Amino acid sequence: MNNVLPEKEIIARIEAALYSSGRPMSLEELNKATNINSNEKVKKILSDMIKKVNSVFHALEIQELNDGKYVFQLKPSYLPIIKKFAKQPLLSSAMLKTLSYILYEQPITSKRLVYIRGTQAYTHVKYLEQLGFVEHENVGRLKVYKTTRKFQDYFGISDINIIKNNLTPKS
């Protein structure tokens, strides 16, 4: 018995997975969602979906990230407009982890952050800067990141040093 799904169903499952996850997804995860065991086939479908989404939608996009994962998201240029209407920005757990490393180690260089969090940190930092939670200073060819006053206000933090001291492992 052949359990191959029609292409429209495969596309629908990829759309549903990307939309509902609210985070970047790997090809392996998308394979599971579609019951396909072929990265090439899923990549081809994603490529077609990216072209279609980018031609139909103006504020939404499907994007392949540097780490090979795919995300369905609001285009970064629309974040400043939309955050007025959103009750709170949505941060994935991966972005929250990146933000916590910036908080704990600040000031932290881009090199150190990527070493700890991987190349996904570039995408996270770009988004966190757009939200106004993180800012950077150029030091030579490196960027040095730290959290902002807006970050403190949003999360109700009066003194960052208190948090950093409570996070420091006791020996």
Descriptive notes:
This protein has helices at residues 7-21, 27-34, 39-56, 79-82, 93-105, 110-117, 120-131, 149-155, 160-167; strands at residues 60-64, 70-74, 108-109, 134-139, 142-147. The protein is of the alpha+beta class and 171 residues long. The chain has 2 domains: 7-74, Arc Repressor Mutant, subunit A, CATH 1.10.10; 93-167, Arc Repressor Mutant, subunit A. The strands form 2 sheets. The protein has a 3-stranded antiparallel sheet. It is elongated.
Quick rundown:
This protein has 2 domains: 7-74, Winged helix-like DNA-binding domain superfamily/Winged helix DNA-binding domain (Arc Repressor Mutant, subunit A); 93-167, Arc Repressor Mutant, subunit A (Orthogonal Bundle), CATH 1.10.10.10. Helix content is 54%, strand content 14%.
Summarize the topology.
Elements: H1 7-21, H2 27-34, H3 39-56, E1 60-64, E2 70-74, H4 79-82, H5 93-105, E3 108-109, H6 110-117, H7 120-131, E4 134-139, E5 142-147, H8 149-155, H9 160-167
Antiparallel strand pairs: 1-2, 3-5, 4-5
Helix pairs in contact: 5-7
CATH-scheme architecture of the largest domain: Orthogonal Bundle
Overall radius of gyration: 19 Å
Q: What structural class should be given to the helix and strand makeup?
A: alpha+beta
- Based on DSSP secondary structure assignment, what is the total number of beta strands? 5
**Tally of separate domains:** 2
**What is the mean pLDDT?**
86
CATH class of the largest domain: Mainly Alpha
Considering the protein shown, what is the CATH homologous superfamily of the largest domain? Winged helix-like DNA-binding domain superfamily/Winged helix DNA-binding domain
Shape: elongated
Oligomeric form: single chain
- Element pattern in H and E: HHHEEHHEHHEEHH
Taking the alpha carbons of the first and last residues, their distance comes to 61 Å
CATH third-tier fold name of the largest domain:
Arc Repressor Mutant, subunit A
Which consecutive residue ranges, at least 5 long each, have pLDDT under 50? none
Describe the strand arrangement of the main beta sheet, using strand numbers: 3-5-4
Question: How many helical elements?
Answer: 9
Strand content: 5-15%
Main beta sheet:
3 strands, antiparallel
Helix content: 40-55%
